[in-house]
Design brief:
TIM Barrel; single chain; alpha/beta; 15% strand; 2 domains; eight-stranded parallel β-sheet; Type Iii Antifreeze Protein Isoform Hplc 12; elongated
Length: 342
């Protein structure tokens, strides 16, 4: 197993992304809601639109559904940029609220800004998994890396990890992801998490783009150590990601459900739960006298029956009992105890 920052509870990331619509007040409100819901981190996106896209880059179909068809992807992204001053303000606000500030850089200048801000982790978006020069620079920053693997084959994931490892950074976690908004449930393929964990022996998680919360919860049950999910203040707001995000109440429900599931997973040791021990004698059965049994009589099969409670000789020991004689007179329906036999 490689060095890992993720060892304890499920690490829950509230993906604020660009759902602030370029407004610092909305960004702070998203931080407030992420903290209130119980998320461990709130994640933004750090980019310069001119560095991220060419002027001719088209919008995706999902972006066209919720933004103007007249503007280019670059024009849309320019409105969603957060400058250095905004980043510093949001980082301080996260520190005040005691929630981790996290962001995905999309260009080298943006990576440099996050390093300058001394963030603890770098979240790498799925679209960068084949951008080896950029991955190398991210690795050299020496931060914990969370790498999303949407659109990637297992071979491409291995190649990306090799770049990070070669650059000297093995503190990496992988997120299974389906890069579609919303992602069709039938194409999620959660078992790919296990495939990656077995192949690369690194922490794995799931970045969820489905519309509801049950798939992310299922991912935790399957072993996800990290869950990322989009958070919005209002699904009806204008912007590319709002409709495929959770509102504050839904996100709080997700966090609560994840915490319940991870508690329920336990340690894997099959033994009586503490709460059920008191019920063993009540629910299990013992061997009981089916009729009066006289002193010194050899026990016959028809003289015993299995009944509750379970505080006597267990039915599994019937054959052993049939080799015994009664030490005393035993009345019908008495719960049999070893001390009654020779």
């Amino acid at each position: 197993m490689k060095k890992s920052t993720f060892k304890k509870k499920v690490f829950i990331i509230a993906e604020a992304g660009v759902n602030h619509n370029g407004d610092i007040k909305l960004a702070k409100a998203l931080i407030d809601q992420a903290k209130k819901a119980g998320a461990d981190a709130v994640k933004f996106q750090t980019f310069k639109a001119d560095n991220l896209t060419s002027r001719k880059a088209p919008k995706s179909k999902y972006q066209l559904k919720s933004t103007s068809m007249k503007e280019s992807q670059q024009e849309m992204l320019k409105k969603l940029e957060l400058d250095e001053k905004a980043h510093k303000e949001l980082l301080r606000y996260c520190q005040k609220k005691k929630i981790m500030f996290l962001s995905s850089p999309f260009d080298e200048q943006s990576l440099e800004l996050l390093v300058k801000l001394k963030v603890k982790m770098i979240k790498v978006a799925s679209g960068e998994i084949t951008n080896f020069p950029f991955l190398e620079k991210i690795a050299l920053a020496g931060k914990t890396i969370i790498l999303s693997t949407g659109m990637a084959t297992l071979k491409e994931v291995k190649q990306a990890l090799n770049v990070l490892y070669k650059a000297g950074n093995e503190d990496v976690a992988l997120l299974h992801c389906v890069t579609e908004y919303p992602a069709p449930v039938e194409e999620v393929n959660l078992k790919a998490m296990d495939t990656m964990q077995k192949a690369f022996k690194v922490p794995v998680g799931y970045s969820d783009h489905t519309l509801d919360i049950e798939i992310a919860i299922a991912a935790v049950a399957l072993g996800a150590g990290i869950i990322e999910k989009h958070l919005t203040l209002d699904k009806n707001m204008k912007g590319p990601d709002h409709k495929a995000s959770l509102d504050p109440d839904e996100f709080a429900n997700l966090v609560k459900s994840i915490r319940n599931v991870e508690k329920a997973l336990g340690n894997g040791i099959k033994k009586p739960a503490l709460c059920e021990k008191k019920n063993i004698d009540v629910v299990r059965k013992s061997l009981v006298a089916a009729d009066d049994i006289l002193k010194n009589a050899k026990i016959k099969r028809e003289q015993v029956v299995a009944k509750r409670p379970g505080n006597g000789i267990p039915p599994k020991d019937l054959e052993r009992l049939l080799k015994k004689r009664a030490r005393m007179n035993i009345k019908k329906d008495d719960v049999l105890q070893w001390g009654q036999f020779l």
